[in-house]
From TrEMBL:
Keyword presence, Calcium: no
Gene3D superfamilies: 3.30.70.920, Winged helix-like DNA-binding domain superfamily/Winged helix DNA-binding domain
One Pfam family per UniProt: AsnC_trans_reg
Record key words, sorted: DNA-binding, Transcription, Transcription regulation
Official protein name in the record: Lrp/AsnC family transcriptional regulator
Organism annotation: Steroidobacter gossypii
Annotated HTH asnC-type domain residues: 8-70
């Protein structure tokens, strides 16, 4: 039986919010923001990592680096009993950053990034041609208002 995660207190939630903004923030800066000692914050981070609340840290590219890249959400309808096969194949596509199972009219939603509209068009076609994919519908991202 899976163990339920312990509820996070308000300090843990605030700490996680700060780490989402900048996972490389020095512990001392986090401590100042939270009004706690550096050792208390370090202990909380270590506990959150040990308990698998925090499972890793990632890289966010600057706006300048991402400028010109085309981002799209690709909604995917999968034929019955093909979800795991489609997942395996989509995982191989390096332009797909996130694949999620969703409720509603579609079965999966992918967030993809390509260098150009032409590259995105080819990627969407490639996903649509995967064995087990019934249909795709895509939306190109025009702008990002904020990201956490």
């Amino acid at each position: 039986m899976k163990q339920r995660p312990q509820p996070l207190d308000s300090v843990d939630q605030q700490l996680i919010a700060l780490l989402r903004e900048n996972a490389r923030a020095p512990t001392a800066a986090l401590a100042r923001s939270l009004g706690l000692s550096r050792t208390t914050v370090q202990s909380r981070i270590e506990r959150l990592e040990r308990s698998k609340v925090i499972t890793g840290y990632s890289v966010r590219l600057s706006e300048a680096q991402e400028r010109g890249a085309v981002h799209a959400y690709i909604m995917i309808t999968v034929k019955p009993k093909h979800a795991s096969q489609v997942e395996r194949e989509v995982r191989k596509l390096s332009q797909v950053r996130v694949l999620q199972a969703v409720s509603g009219s579609f079965d999966m939603m992918a967030l993809a990034v390509a260098d150009s509209i032409t590259d995105m068009d080819e990627l969407i076609d490639a996903i649509g041609e995967l064995d087990g994919v019934e249909r795709t519908t895509s939306s190109i991202v025009l702008s990002t208002k904020f990201e956490r």
